[in-house]
Backbone:
């Protein structure tokens, strides 16, 4: 119960941040962007498949994400999903980096 | 009756000998020193030779090999490679080429070969279930949809072979363990065990093929099935090892296949903790928790059972730690490089081969001095599978 409430709070907080700062990810350096892309393919890929078509975790292709709200995705990346193996990545990623990853997923990782 | 060979025949003989020695494929060789390394980014595998410590040949065209695994035919000639995209590829280790390849599902996770070597089983995420194929032809023999008690199709994990031509596997989405008796190949006889524990995520079978043990993600503990007493059902062990402790985020699911069974002990990775758990095999009680570098992924005993080698989850995956089984303490810490994904011991355990994905290298260590002997270039190497697995139950 607590986790649901806190997730809701985070979602609202997330939306607030997004509306105030937008989805700018400009300060991610090229080097860091390469690292993040590598991490998405290899480490997210451990559960979601290297092509992100799904594994133990669900598919994360642009088609699979469809019109799911980006802010909910951001909250999932940063804070995980209680009751599932999806861990919170906020210890390893800044909010901006997580946003960059969410944008990448909606755009499609493959060039 | 002796007579001279005509001169042209002598020439022919010499020519034939030259041709034979010049053409390596025709030279007899064995497969006992061979193995496969998965190159997961490029959808290729490399045949390695642990005798000469070298890469022998690269084979392309195996599809999506993230999370790929391999079993071997009983004559060690053919490797069956299970790919993430549902591909099942039969590789000829001697002719160094793909013998057959099928796409058998949308999304698969692993496979097993039956005790007699006649059947290949593949566990699938999408659509959830197990498919069984003829090992020679890869023709479909049986299809087992994993529809759980909840009426939903479940992802299948932890598929292993068990004695008497059985396959055992777990249903991730419905908390079940199934045993498929394949003695009548096209009519599998299924025994279902329900409520085995929340979210079984992987499993192993002990080397003698008696105990099937599934790790649980949704709760502490493990689910244990004694195949000598299948009627006794599945029981829960280590149910309270982490009670009251805050779980750490799990950035990569542990693997159970390589579980270390050393003497009277089983050493297992703690889910969400920086420790290796030591279990007494007589009564399945926890006897010790060994603090380690980070969250363990593979916890593997050397063939002589003297040491146990552990690798770790992202982002601490540049490290291997070695546990001495005599003292149950960490005796060494190695830094092979970024993203250590897998370890495989040579059949008698004098060396261990380690894949270091982001260094694009396999490193070979002496198991006793723990010094690096050599390293071999590979493209994003992950799993290493040597042919001696052909003769081990559950691998």
Residues:
């Amino acid at each position: 119960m607590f986790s649901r409430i806190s997730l809701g709070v985070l979602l609202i907080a997330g939306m607030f941040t997004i509306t105030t700062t937008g989805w700018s990810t400009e300060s991610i350096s090229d080097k860091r962007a390469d690292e993040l892309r590598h991490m998405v393919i290899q480490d997210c890929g451990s559960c979601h498949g290297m092509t992100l078509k799904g594994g133990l975790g669900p598919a994360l292709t642009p088609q699979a994400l469809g019109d799911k709200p980006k802010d909910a995705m951001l909250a999932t990346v940063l804070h995980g999903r209680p009751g599932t193996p999806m861990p919170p990545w906020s210890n390893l990623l800044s909010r901006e980096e997580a946003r960059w990853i969410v944008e990448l997923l909606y755009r499609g990782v493959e060039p | 009756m002796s007579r001279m060979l005509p001169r042209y025949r002598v020439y022919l003989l010499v020519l034939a000998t030259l041709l034979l020695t010049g053409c390596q494929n025709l030279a007899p060789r064995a497969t006992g020193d061979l193995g496969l390394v998965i190159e997961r980014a490029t959808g290729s595998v490399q045949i390695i030779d642990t005798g000469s410590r070298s890469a022998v040949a690269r084979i392309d065209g195996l599809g999506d090999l993230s999370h790929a695994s391999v079993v071997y035919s009983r004559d060690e000639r053919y490797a069956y490679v299970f790919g993430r995209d549902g591909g099942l590829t039969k590789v000829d280790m001697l002719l160094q080429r793909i013998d057959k390849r099928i796409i058998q599902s949308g999304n698969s996770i692993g496979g097993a070969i039956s005790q007699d070597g006649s059947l290949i089983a593949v566990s699938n995420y999408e659509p959830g279930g197990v498919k069984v194929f003829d090992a020679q032809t890869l023709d479909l023999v049986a299809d087992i949809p994993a529809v759980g008690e909840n009426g939903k199709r479940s992802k299948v994990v932890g598929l292993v072979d068990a004695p008497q031509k059985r396959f055992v596997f777990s249903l991730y989405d419905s908390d079940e363990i199934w045993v498929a008796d394949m003695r009548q190949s096209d009519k599998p006889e299924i025994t279902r065990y329900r409520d085995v524990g929340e979210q079984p995520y992987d499993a192993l079978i002990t080397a003698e093929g008696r105990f099937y043990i599934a790790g649980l993600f949704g709760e502490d503990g493990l689910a244990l099935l004694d195949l000598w007493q299948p009627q006794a059902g599945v029981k829960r062990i280590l149910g309270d090892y982490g009670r009251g402790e805050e779980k750490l985020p799990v950035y990569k699911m542990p693997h159970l296949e390589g579980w270390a069974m050393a003497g009277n002990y089983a050493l297992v990775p703690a889910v969400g903790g920086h420790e290796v758990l030591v279990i007494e095999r007589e009564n399945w009680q926890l006897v010790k928790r060994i603090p380690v570098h980070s969250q363990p992924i593979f916890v593997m005993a050397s063939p002589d059972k003297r040491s146990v080698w552990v690798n770790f989850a992202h982002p601490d995956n540049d490290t291997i730690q070695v546990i001495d089984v005599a003292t149950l303490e960490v005796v060494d810490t190695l830094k092979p490089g970024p993203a250590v994904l897998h370890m495989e011991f040579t059949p008698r355990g004098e060396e261990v081969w380690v894949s270091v994905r982001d260094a694009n290298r396999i490193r070979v260590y002496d198991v006793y001095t723990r010094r690096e002997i050599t390293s071999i270039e590979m493209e994003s190497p992950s799993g290493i599978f040597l042919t001696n697995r052909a003769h081990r139950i559950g691998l």
User: Anything to note?
Assistant: Confidence is low (pLDDT under 50) at residues 7-21 of chain A. The helical segments of chain A are 2-21, 30-48, 62-65, 70-79, 95-107. Chain A touches chain B at residues 38, 41-43, 45-47, 49-51, 53-56, 80, 83, 85, 87-89, 91-92 (CB under 8 Å). Chain A has one domain: 2-107.
